[in-house]
Amino acid sequence: AQSVSQHNHHVILSEAASLELGCNYSYGGTVNLFWYVQYPGQHLQLLLKYFSGDPLVKGIKGFEAEFIKSKFSFNLRKPSVQWSDTAEYFCAVNSYNQGGKLIFGQGTELSVKP
Amino acid sequence: EPEVTQTPSHQVTQMGQEVILRCVPISNHLYFYWYRQILGQKVEFLVSFYNNEISEKSEIFDDQFSVERPDGSNFTLKIRSTKLEDSAMYFCASTTGNPSGANVLTFGAGSRLTVL
C-alpha cells in the first residue's frame, strides 16, 4: 500500500531562516506529488505539484520542491521564511491512472517566530 | 476563484445520532471526495464519487457512512449512528478529473464534528 512519511512533526524557525521539510513516499509506480498548506483556521490550499518534467517545481509564495525519484522524496524548501508562513504543511501522493485519491503524510507544523 | 463550500463549520452531536455534512463542490467538477482528519493525525481518504456512484472507498468508510448527490449540486456525507471516534474534521474536495490522476483537488474549509 502507498504511504507518505513526513519526518518533521513540528518545526520552529526564526524569520529569514531557510526551510526544508522532508517527504518520502512508498510506491513503485508513477506518481503525482503535491504539497498542501493549511493556515490556521483555513482550508487546505495547494502550494505546488509535480506531475512530470522538470523535477524542481516552483509554487506559490516562494516555495519550491524537488522530486528525487531514486530517493522517493519530494522535499519542500523555502530560502527565507516569513512569520506568515506559520501553518501546517502536508505532502500528498496519488498514483498514475488511479484517479484523484490522495494519500497524505501526517503533516508538519511550522511555527515562524517574528 | 471558485470554492468548495462546506456546512456546518462545526457540529456537536450525541453518540448514536445521525449527522449529515454538506458540501457544494465547484460547479464544473466531476469527481468528489470526502477526507477526514482526526485531531493530531493525518488526513485520511474516505470515499470518492463519480457519475453518481462511489468509485472507491477506504476501510474507514463502513456501513455507517453513506454519500449522495441528491440534487446535482450538494454532495453529502451521512454518518448514521455516530461514535466517539468519528470526532474529526471532515473535508470535502472536488476536481475536474483526469484519468491519469494528474489533477488538483480543491478542498473545502472542513466541517468539525464533535461526538459527545
Give the gist of this structure:
Chain A has 114 residues and is an all-beta fold. In chain A, 0% of the residues lie in helices and 54% in strands. In chain A, the strands form three sheets. In chain A, strands 2, 5, 6, 10, 11 and 12 form a six-stranded mixed β-sheet that branches. In chain A, strands 3-9-8-7 form a four-stranded antiparallel β-sheet, with no helix packed on it.
Structure in words:
The complex is a heterodimer of chains A (114) and B (116). Chain A has 114 residues and is an all-beta fold. Chain A is built from no helices and 12 strands. With 116 residues, chain B is mainly β. Helices cover 0% and strands 49% of the residues of chain B. The interface between A and B is medium-sized, with 27 and 30 residues.
Q: Please report which band the strand proportion of chain B falls in: under 5%, 5-15%, 15-25%, 25-35%, 35-45% or over 45%.
A: over 45%
Count of alpha/pi helices of chain B:
0
Shape of chain B: globular
Continuous helix count of chain A:
0
Give the number of DSSP strands of chain B: 11
Radius of gyration of chain A: 14 Å
Helix/strand/pairing category of chain B: mainly beta
Q: What is the rounded Rg of chain B?
A: 13 Å
Estimated helix fraction of chain B:
under 10%
SSE topology string of chain B: EEEEEEEEEEE
Overall pLDDT level of chain B: 92
Q: Please summarize the sheet with the most strands of chain B.
A: 7 strands, mixed
The main pleated sheet of chain A reads as: 6 strands, mixed
Coarse morphology of chain A: globular
Annotate the secondary structure layout.
The complex is a heterodimer of chains A (114) and B (116).
Chain A: E1 3-6, E2 10-14, E3 19-21, E4 23-26, E5 31-38, E6 44-50, E7 56-58, E8 64-68, E9 73-78, E10 87-95, E11 103-104, E12 108-113
Parallel strand pairs in A: 2-12
Antiparallel strand pairs in A: 1-4, 3-9, 5-6, 5-10, 7-8, 8-9, 10-11, 10-12
Chain B: E1 5-7, E2 10-13, E3 19-24, E4 31-37, E5 43-50, E6 53-57, E7 65-68, E8 75-79, E9 88-95, E10 106-107, E11 111-115
Parallel strand pairs in B: 2-11
Antiparallel strand pairs in B: 1-3, 3-8, 4-5, 4-9, 5-6, 7-8, 9-10, 9-11
